[in-house]
């Protein structure tokens, strides 16, 4: 009986060891990730406000946190100041999850002429801004460093499941009622609005 118990314990230990190895190898398969995580301040410090004026005149105000994601904020501000986002749309709407925009092609495949480093923990950057309701983050492909111009606004606190995988860099401080209104727009089976949801102008406040 003692031998059977011993064999069972050894088998369980081996299974746990194998499971741990699989989990660790899966976590280590990211692209261009750093071996250590770069530390940043844990408290977001607002420095800059972006105004998104929709076609219906409503305004969504987003404060930016360059101390949390400096590369991301610098890229976003550069595109805003170039007028890149003017006339673009929120092309993807998933109720209870996100609204996504900033694609010049309007179908989720486009971007600007430059991609940036992904500032999130899976890519070696300690980004403490949790992706809760109203938080703004960059969309990307499977490549950790592929973020360009597309961004999304979180609709729910449960979006925190995205923490560590996407670069959060700002938060809506006014106009969440407009964001919620956009989230109710009728879409096709690919989450694309049946009628374009246009950002008339996107500017930085002076």
Describe, in short, the structure shown:
With 206 residues, this protein is of the alpha+beta class. It has helices spanning 2-27, 70-81, 176-183; strands spanning 49-54, 59-64, 90-94, 98-101, 135-138, 151-154, 168-174, 199-204. It has an 8-stranded antiparallel sheet with strand order 3-4-6-5-7-2-1-8.
General description of the model:
With 206 residues, the chain is α+β, with helices and mostly antiparallel strands. The protein has a single domain (49-204), classed as Cyclophilin-like (Cyclophilin), CATH 2.40.100. The chain is built from three helices and eight strands, in the order H-E-E-H-E-E-E-E-E-H-E. The chain has helices at residues 2-27, 70-81, 176-183; strands spanning 49-54, 59-64, 90-94, 98-101, 135-138, 151-154, 168-174, 199-204. The chain has an eight-stranded antiparallel beta sheet with strand order 3-4-6-5-7-2-1-8. A hairpin with a 4-residue loop joins strand 1 and strand 2 (59-64). The longest helix is centred in the N-terminal third of the chain and has 26 residues, at 2-27. The radius of gyration is 21 Å and the shape is globular.
Give the strand tally: 8
Number of helical stretches of at least 4 residues: 3
Major beta sheet, specifics?
8 strands, antiparallel
**How would you classify the quaternary structure?**
single chain
Percent strand: 15-25%
What strand order characterises the main sheet?
Answer: 3-4-6-5-7-2-1-8
CATH domain class? Mainly Beta
CATH architecture: Beta Barrel
Globular, elongated, flat, extended or rod-shaped: what is the shape?
globular
Mean of all residue-level pLDDT scores: 85
Report how far apart the termini are. Answer: 78 Å
Q: What Rg do the Cα atoms give?
A: 21 Å
CATH topology: Cyclophilin
Task: Tell me the CATH superfamily.
Answer: Cyclophilin-like
Whole-number total of structural domains: 1
Class based on secondary structure composition and strand pairing:
alpha+beta
Low-confidence stretches: 1-35
